[in-house]
């Protein structure tokens, strides 16, 4: 296919040169996709602007992120709308669509209104311009969110200035002067605050963002130029000064940068050969991020050539960064499997992403192509391709014969490189073409395993990225913004001085220590490890911190003992423009009028303690539990607790070896003042008679309690009598329990059919306590064909196991039976599973020597760090889970040992055996309930559980789906929550679990489910209820 590519050259009165590219531009499947998709993408943008068919009633000029309720993107983001209208402004300015003019003016009018809306980030004069999003009726969004997001104002200024420059050329100076005050607001904001920390474009990392600073640099350069045109020479000088300072910080080497606030940092990493996209914020990820490719694309200037200081797309650093970032995704997504090292792949935000499962994004994949199209444009325009040692790995990946040097584009090597790079760029567009939705629709993401569109449908930014990539492919380039010849200054970089205000925090708290933490870098950026220790003694604590002036911020208090305890709810305050600020607080939930609470316990043991959710009760720290006075069996203790405070508690015992025996679940609660009278449950038993009518040679009863064998048929209680009447009387704890009958005819044991029976011990103290010693339940194996043969015991799920730490777990043997298990115990297990008595056909998986399952960690590669506060954005009804603040959540620790309580999490509720710890590592903090629900769910769907849990596998259909309602019925999960919606929401946080589109089912993620579907699994039903018929 032949193209006549028109390249607009600088010099000689903007002469035009036609370059016949027949020698190197080759036919591609992208040609037809570009023709069909371009109008679809353009209409997709217009549909999402106020008055459009999918704008959901948005005001005129307002851009909605997407017409999506889950995730909820029916908001207008300053960033997204500015980038979207930059695309439309470029089309209008180039004379390609004159009909866009009124819509652009409507958008500018809407933005002028939003600038003046008071919001949680402040007013127009106190930081409110950094507010990331608003309701589509142009009112403030007041929910918790990642604030501020300082890329919005400069991006908006760039779009407005581009339109204003065109209006000046058209002689419409009066209109430009009418919008100049709004442009100036954004430029002044950037001038004052460019070197303060804020949230990145994904709204997840608080720090210094490469994308944000680059946007600020460009805005100030364009702002200085238009200010000079309008006669604002002093402003032009001020903008130029700060633009130069920003460029210094963008380009200097790691060896000598003194960051504006926090020590030595830089964006370019020689070790990674890439941009570290966020610094100065305690970033725990690798830093390799698709936003660095977006930065190069948005900094493109057709007049700047391949200059590195402004990170032009064909510069050696930008190309090497492109290779490093793209390579970081090659092994992450299943759909990238079998793609060669020189082939294009799907890419996302960053490799550790877990929002919506952590998938590729259409807009980032388009950006990877767009950067390379711009690069080929510059090479042909300038007639040469420079290759340095920095960029050589990029070139050799797509053209192995590339060598360091400057190559003519018309040489054989030059044409070979052009062809290879264009083919590589087209490959990224082909990826999006392959996985685009029906009718060319572009959502936010596409599934990492299947490629199916995912997350918010019809994402405006996805459509905008398609248009800019297609235009770049045809070398329809935007106008220059003045980047040509810009060089970073030598010597020490100078940061903009940030006015600060002395802020004193005073809090009344009975805590043994108090720390201050908040969203600002000076307050630790919500990291409890960086929280500020306050001075004083209980109950008065104080600390003084210098904070940025005129800044709205959130904060809260916490205490540190063995674990971290967060004060409920975030606080919000603001600093003044000058002077001092004093904030006087009282720890929420505390009262200083203390009253006595007496605990009386009947317990047949050598000691007794009480521990609970108050400082006087040790804050759930067993080492600080209150020793009770008295002797066996009567114990008592009195403590003082703030009046009217409702608290939870438990009793514990200390064994001779120092280990602690917790009272069984659930936690008890009381409100001060109170007298609590209790009986330790295991010390009170009553006789319970079981009766059975059955034809059998012998009969047994087995159940969840220790006295009933803990579901182990080898320990079942034999019943008295003869066929058909059997009975047994057993002393049981005062508690409810589940059980079943067994019978033997011949030599085999037969389980009665489901469901489990339920019983209770009737006595005067029933309901006071429930006996639940730390034991493991045995799960009877249902009838099914397995890789080891056929079993015939009917399915019978007893309560979930309560594993406890095993100080010396046995190693599993060849067939899964633990080494060291006594032969008679092994024989009993095989008998229970109806297997031969030889060791050659064992079916058990990972038994510990004491008869418990060993639940070990799954061997995995690196685990991803998030939902979008997420693109991973925000709270539940925003775009995901809030990133900027823990709110009432607790921080998450890395996975260490699956059955010990994490240091930061108190038990919720404390259980006789700790719950599993999640394997998914989220870059934000969950509340304790969701944390333990996530751990329990990930255990159910783990490989090691599926290897042993035939009952759960029987619930799978042919596509591995298990009804969420079934999972919610499991007893271990029911001790945590009875809310199926909460369970479904938590499942969506997991990297191990995938939730079906209808939200009714879940399965093992990343295709792992295929290993565990049974041969006779029921077929999946479509939404129409027809087996094998799917609406899509």
UniProtKB/TrEMBL annotation:
**According to the UniProt entry, where is the signal peptide?**
1-15
Q: Where is this region: Disordered?
A: 752-821, 865-888
Organism annotation: Ceratobasidium theobromae
In the record, the note on similarity to other proteins reads:
Belongs to the glycosyl hydrolase 15 family.
Task: Tell me the domain of life.
Answer: Eukaryota
Q: Name one GO cellular component term.
A: fungal-type vacuole
**Gene3D superfamilies of this UniProt entry?**
1.50.10.10, Immunoglobulins, Winged helix-like DNA-binding domain superfamily/Winged helix DNA-binding domain
Instruction: Please name the top-level EC class of this enzyme.
Output: hydrolase
* Catalytic activity field: Hydrolysis of terminal (1->4)-linked alpha-D-glucose residues successively from non-reducing ends of the chains with release of beta-D-glucose
- Descriptive protein name: glucan 1,4-alpha-glucosidase
The record, for InterPro entries, names: 6-hairpin_glycosidase_sf, 6hp_glycosidase-like_sf, Carb-bd-like_fold, CBM20, GH15-like, Glucoamylase, Glucoamylase_active_site, Ig-like_fold
Q: Which GO terms describe its biological process?
A: polysaccharide catabolic process
Compositional bias (Low complexity) at which positions?
A: 773-787
PROSITE patterns recorded for this chain? Answer: CBM20, GLUCOAMYLASE, HTH_LA
């Amino acid at each position: 296919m032949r193209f006549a590519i028109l390249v607009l050259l600088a010099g000689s009165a903007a002469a035009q040169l036609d370059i016949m590219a027949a020698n190197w531009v080759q036919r591609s499947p992208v040609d037809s996709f570009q023709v069909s998709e371009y109008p679809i993408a353009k209409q997709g943008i217009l549909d999402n602007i106020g008055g459009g068919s999918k704008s959901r009633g948005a005001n005129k000029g307002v851009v909605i992120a997407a017409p999506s309720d889950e995730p909820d993107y029916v908001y207008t983001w300053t960033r997204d709308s500015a980038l979207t209208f930059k695309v439309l402004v470029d089309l209008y300015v180039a004379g390609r669509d004159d009909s866009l003019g009124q819509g652009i003016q409507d958008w500018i009018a809407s933005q002028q209104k939003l600038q003046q809306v008071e919001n949680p980030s402040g007013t127009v004069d106190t930081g409110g311009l950094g507010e990331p999003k608003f309701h589509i009726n142009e009112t403030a969004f007041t929910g918790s969110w990642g604030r501020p997001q300082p890329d919005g104002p400069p991006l908006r200024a760039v779009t407005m200035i581009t339109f204003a420059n065109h209006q000046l050329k058209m002689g419409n100076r009066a209109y430009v002067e009418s919008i100049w005050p709004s442009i100036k607001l954004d430029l002044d904001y950037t001038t004052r605050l460019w070197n303060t920390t804020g949230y990145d474009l994904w709204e997840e990392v608080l720090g210094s963002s490469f994308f944000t600073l680059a946007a600020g640099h460009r805005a100030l350069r364009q702002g200085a130029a238009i200010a000079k045109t309008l006669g604002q020479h002093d402003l032009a000088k001020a903008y130029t000064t700060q633009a130069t300072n920003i460029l210094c910080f963008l380009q200097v080497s790691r060896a000598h940068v003194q960051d504006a606030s926090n020590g030595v940092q830089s964006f370019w990493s020689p070790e990674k050969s890439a941009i570290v996209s966020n610094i100065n914020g305690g970033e725990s990820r690798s830093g390799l991020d698709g936003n660095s490719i977006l930065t190069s694309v948005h900094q493109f200037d057709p007049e700047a050539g391949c200059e590195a200081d402004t990170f032009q797309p064909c510069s050696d650093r930008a190309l090497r960064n492109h290779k490093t970032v793209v390579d970081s995704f090659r092994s992450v997504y299943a759909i990238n499997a079998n793609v060669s090292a020189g082939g294009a792949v799907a890419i996302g935000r960053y490799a550790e992403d877990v929002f919506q499962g952590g998938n590729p994004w259409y807009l980032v994949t388009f950006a990877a192509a767009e950067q390379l199209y711009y690069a080929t444009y510059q090479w042909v325009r300038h007639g040469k391709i420079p290759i340095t040692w920095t960029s050589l790995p990029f070139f050799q990946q797509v053209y192995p014969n590339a060598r360091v040097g400057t190559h003519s584009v018309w040489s054989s090597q030059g044409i070979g490189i052009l062809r290879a790079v264009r083919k590589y760029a087209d490959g990224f567009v082909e990826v999006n073409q392959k996985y685009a939705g029906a009718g060319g629709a572009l959502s936010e993401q596409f599934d990492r395993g299947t490629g199916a569109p995912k997350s918010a449908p019809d994402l405006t930014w996805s459509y905008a990225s398609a248009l800019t990539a297609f235009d770049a492919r045809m070398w329809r380039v935007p106008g220059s913004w003045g980047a040509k010849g810009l060089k970073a200054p030598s010597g020490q970089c100078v940061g903009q001085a940030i006015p600060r205000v002395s802020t004193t925090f005073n809090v009344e708290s009975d805590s043994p220590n108090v720390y201050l933490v908040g969203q600002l870098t000076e307050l630790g950026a919500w990291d409890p490890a960086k929280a500020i220790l306050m001075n004083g003694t209980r109950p008065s604590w104080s600390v003084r911190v210098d904070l940025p002036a005129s800044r709205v911020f959130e904060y809260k208090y916490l205490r540190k003992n063995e674990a971290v305890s967060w004060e409920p709810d975030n606080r919000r305050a603001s600093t003044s423009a000058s002077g001092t600020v004093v904030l006087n607080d009282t720890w929420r939930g505390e009262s200083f009028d203390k009253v006595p609470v007496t605990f009386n316990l009947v317990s047949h043991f050598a000691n007794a303690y009480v521990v609970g959710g108050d400082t006087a009760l040790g804050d759930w720290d067993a080492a600080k539990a209150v020793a009770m006075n008295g002797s066996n069996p009567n114990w008592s203790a009195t403590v003082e607790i703030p009046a009217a405070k409702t608290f939870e508690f438990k009793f514990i015992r200390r064994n001779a070896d120092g280990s602690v025996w917790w009272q069984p679940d659930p936690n008890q609660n009381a409100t001060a003042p109170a007298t609590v009278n209790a009986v330790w449950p295991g010390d009170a038993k009553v006789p319970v008679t079981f009766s059975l009518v059955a034809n059998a040679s012998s009969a047994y009863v087995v159940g969840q309690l220790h006295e009933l064998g803990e579901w182990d048929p080898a320990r079942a209680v034999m019943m008295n009598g003869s066929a058909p009447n059997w009975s047994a009387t057993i002393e049981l704890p005062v508690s409810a329990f589940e059980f079943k009958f067994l019978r033997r005819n011949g030599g085999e044991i037969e389980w009665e059919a489901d469901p489990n029976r339920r019983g209770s011990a009737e006595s005067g103290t029933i309901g006071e306590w429930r006996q639940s010693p730390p034991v493991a339940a045995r799960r009877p194996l249902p009838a099914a064909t397995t890789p080891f043969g056929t079993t015939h015991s009917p399915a019978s799920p007893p309560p979930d196991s309560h594993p406890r730490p095993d100080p010396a777990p046995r190693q599993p043997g060849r067939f899964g039976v633990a080494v060291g298990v006594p032969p008679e115990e092994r024989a009993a297990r095989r008998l229970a599973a109806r297997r031969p008595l030889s060791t050659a056909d064992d079916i058990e998986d990972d038994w510990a020597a004491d008869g418990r399952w060993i639940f070990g960690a799954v061997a995995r590669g690196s685990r991803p760090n998030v939902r979008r506060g997420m693109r991973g954005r925000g709270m539940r009804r925003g775009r995901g889970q809030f990133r900027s603040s823990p709110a009432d959540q607790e921080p998450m620790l890395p996975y260490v040992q699956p059955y010990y309580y994490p240091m930061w999490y108190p038990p919720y509720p404390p259980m006789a055996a700790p719950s599993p710890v999640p394997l998914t590592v989220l870059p934000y903090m969950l509340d304790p309930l969701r944390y333990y629900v996530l751990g329990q769910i990930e255990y159910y769907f783990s490989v090691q559980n599926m290897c042993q849990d035939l009952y759960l596998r029987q619930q799978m259909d042919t596509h591995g789906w298990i009804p969420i309602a079934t999972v919610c019925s499991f007893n271990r999960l029911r001790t945590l929550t009875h809310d199926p919606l909460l369970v479904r929401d938590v499942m969506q946080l997991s990297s191990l679990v995938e939730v079906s589109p209808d939200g009714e089912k879940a399965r093992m993620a990343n295709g792992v489910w295929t290993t565990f579907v049974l041969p006779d699994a029921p077929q999946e039903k479509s939404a129409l209820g027809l087996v094998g018929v799917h609406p899509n």
